Amino acid sequence: MTSDIAAFRIPQTWFWTVACFAAMAAMMVDANLDLLDQPWRSLLKVMVLVFAAGTLVSGHRQAEAEGPPSRALDVFNTRVMVWVGACLFTFAVGAAISHRVPLGTPERWLLGLVTSIPALALIWTTARYLADETDEYLRQLAMMSALIGLAVVLAIASVWGVLEALGLVPHFSTWWLIPIFGFANGAGRAWLKARSR
Amino acid sequence: MKNRLRVLRAEREWSQQDLANALDVSRQSVNAIETGKYDPSLPLAFRIADVFGLRIEQIFLRD
Predict the structure, then answer these.
(1) pLDDT (tens digit, 9 = 90+) per residue, A170-185?
(2) Which of A106, A169, A170, A193 has the fewest CB neighbours in a 10 Å radius?
(3) What is the pLDDT of residue A191?
(4) Cβ A136–B28 below 8 Å, yes or no?
(5) Which of A67, A84, A118 is the last residue of a domain?
(6) Which domain holds residue A47?
(7) Of B22, B19, B41, B45, nearest to B31 (Cα)?
(8) A142 and A128 part of one domain
């Protein structure tokens, strides 16, 4: 019994990240092709939230176990957790109440802008980390991984934009670029860290 | 750029964390510099030289 408990491992960050990305991709495909009915569509949204929470919690535990390399990185990780949580919350609330707010009204504009604030805060968080980090190697890692994330976002946006203009692919909501940047940034950082070992 | 960090650290029986604390950088930074994966800036190279009481060119060597 004890060995069974000892043998059980909470899935690692990469598992949650891949699961979250897969669920988000499924949600994006469904949003464009209208494949699912209720309650499966709502269930998919809940899965995204659960997987995102798993990514954040396991990532935080891993960082705690390894010890934060710098004070600035510790603050950055905490801020990212807070703002990603706020992003998920405002998106969920925005999606839930948007149909009750008429198009073209100031309330609709307010809803859209309020929903976008956490995403802007995430960009500010990255800029603030780069300004606060005193360890030049860690700062270089962060800049390189941000460049990788930016390259992935630009590549996807430009290629998809051309394909969409030619009527080859369905419409793509550009707010997806924020989570895509986050995942590409994280994957880039993991790759750079593995390469420097 | 090659360097003698690992040897100098071993001579003083310092861990990577000890050197990182002395330089006020992360252990990852010391590891990256030591393994040649990252070349430090000139100010950090001077700090490393000061910690070991040596000149920069006694620690960092041309390829």
Answers:
(1) 887 888 888 888 888 8
(2) A106
(3) 83
(4) no
(5) A67
(6) 1-67
(7) B19
(8) no
Can you tell me the ipTM of this complex?
0.92
- Is B58 in the A-facing interface, judged by CB distances under 8 Å? no
d(C-alpha A48, C-alpha A97), whole Å: 19
Tell me how far CA of residue B26 lies from CA of A1, A62, A169, B3, B18, in angstroms: 41, 17, 46, 18, 10
pLDDT in tens, A143-158: 999 999 999 999 999 9
Here the contacts of A95-98 (C-beta below 8 Å, separation 24 or greater) are A95/A45
Q: Which of B26, B27, B46 to mutate to test the interface with A (most CBs of A within 10 A)?
A: B26
Residue B60 bridge partners (DSSP): B3
Q: Are residues A22 and A59 in the same domain?
A: yes
Look-up: residue for tokens 């203009």?
Answer: A165
Q: Are B1 and B63 in contact (CB under 8 A)?
A: yes
Q: Taking the mean position of all CA atoms in its chain, how far away is CA A172?
A: 16
Tokens of A177: 């670029």
- Which residue shows structure tokens 């609709």? A108
